[in-house]
Amino acid sequence: MSAHTYMLFIGASVVLCLVPGPDMLFLLGRSIAQGRSAGLSAAFGINLGAYVHLLAAASGLSALVLASATAFSVVKCAGAAYLIYLGWGALRTKGGLVFPEGGGAKEVALRRIFWQGFLSDVLNPKVALFYLALLPQFLSAHDSDPMKHLLALGVTGNMVGIATSVIYVFIASQLTNVLRRSPTVSTWITKAMGALFAGLGVRLATEKL
């Protein structure tokens, strides 16, 4: 793989990371509703999920799932159901999603957000399609070590992804810091986030990928 091809891939990864998707909207929702710590927890959870997709693509598991209509539908429906579940939970919350104080409760809440981000990414079949459709385009048919280069591209894409996510988190949390100080506004932000998650779930369930 040439340096030129590698730089082209980095550029393509940056462009794709700027396109809004369920993962980005999830971390932005957490950043806006709960602040920087929540947004970063979501971002790192999503990034860990991306490595699961990379390993699945490298092992051929993703190809098997996407080739099976039943398996694909199961993954898609599971992802949609999970997003709707998160949305319903936020809609039912009374008041804003303020972190509890003391006794390590905040750390527990952040870990929960981390694993929510992880599951949101792992159960998103669009991410699997990304690895199977994009990465091979930057590999040569005569590549002497395609697996090595596939993994290198995947890790690079994930690094671009986490860098982009962190920037988004800092910007979103900073811009909405004043809004979260108002209990009324915080409540409405939380409800809007819940509606967003539920809407994404419904869209994923009904969308043909």
Automatic annotation (TrEMBL):
> In the UniProt record, what gene is named as encoding this protein?
rhtB
MF term (GO), any? amino acid transmembrane transporter activity
Keyword field: Cell membrane, Membrane, Transmembrane, Transmembrane helix
Please name the taxonomic classification of the source: Bacteria, Pseudomonadati, Pseudomonadota, Betaproteobacteria, Burkholderiales
Q: Name one GO cellular component term.
A: plasma membrane
Q: Name one Pfam family in it.
A: LysE
Subcellular location(s) of the protein: Cell membrane
- From what organism does this protein derive? Paraburkholderia ribeironis
Protein name, UniProt field: Homoserine/homoserine lactone efflux protein
Q: What is the membrane topology noted in the UniProt record heading this document?
A: Multi-pass membrane protein
Residue stretches spanning the membrane: 6-28, 40-58, 64-85, 150-173
Superkingdom, taxonomy of origin: Bacteria
